[in-house]
Amino acid sequence: TLAAEQHTVLCLDEMEASPPQWMPTLAPAAPACLLYTSGTTGIPKGVVLSHSAILARAARYAADYGINQADRLSLLQSFAVSAGIREIYGALLTGATLTFYDVRTRGLGELAQWLNHAGITVFYAVPTIFRLFLETLRVVRLGGEPVREYEVSGFRRHFKRSCVLANGYAATETDTICQMLIDHDTRIVAGRVPAGAPVPGVEVTLRDERGDPATGAVGEIRVAGMMLASGYWDAGSGQVQPFDLPIATGDLGYQLDDGRVFLVGRRDLIVNVHGYRIHLGEIERAVSRVPGVVEAVAAPRPTAQGDTTIAVYYVAEGESEPD
Fold this sequence. Notes:
This protein is α+β, with helices and mostly antiparallel strands. The chain has six helices and 19 strands. It has two domains: 28-268, Rossmann fold (3-Layer(aba) Sandwich), CATH 3.40.50.12780; 274-323, GMP Synthetase, Chain A, domain 3 (2-Layer Sandwich), CATH 3.30.300. The strands form six sheets. Strands 5-6-7-8-9 form a five-stranded mixed β-sheet, with no helix packed on it. It has a four-stranded antiparallel β-sheet with strand order 1-2-12-13.
């Protein structure tokens, strides 16, 4: 119920009908929106999504989690990122309720109470925010950064067995690439949480430095499929520049015979130390598995002799600053 003294109430029955307006017919491939990448490896790029790509992404999202009009989806992301577009149009497509929470202005302190009060049934967040728990959730979807065994253990401690943890691997250019549904009985081997198997309609290949197939080895993940954006926006020409296919993600990983993909880091986060190629992500994962370590970051550092060494910074349980 809206308070009349706080909100303007419009009654459609009392309003004069507007004259019909002609709406242009747009092709499915026509640009619908322009999203910018995070700029992790350089200047942010404008990614053009077509109407058909948005519809396909929303439909797959709804199908993956069985979303329907009884669900209540959370929206913690910006409207101008791929995850926000998926949540908005996923709700519109299925008749689900979309509820908004601004983390920047409201902070994390109110989030648990808001989740309960809003009756959220499908919750999407980055793992950093995933520290709050309630009984109504049936799907918790994490994305935006790698999921560690620590988050899986927390999920199993605090969520009921009927709830599912969905680990998603995605990019602005591609939407969801791989997905792994984790329940209380899913085995996590050697502390590695899979990014999952390629979702329907997505083709994943791994290539080595020469561009050859990386069979049974670590390679750069490349993606093709029907969910891809149209290309990057060229502000100089005002035109869409199509992608070279398959799209090279810059992410490194390996794929098992059952199709599951494991991420090991970024192509630009490989350091050469005394002739050995070192994946910083591998070191971070190994340190994070040490009891008492919550999070770790590895970084190259020059020595006085002109060589390169690797320093590891970590956060221990109960601490908020890196050591």
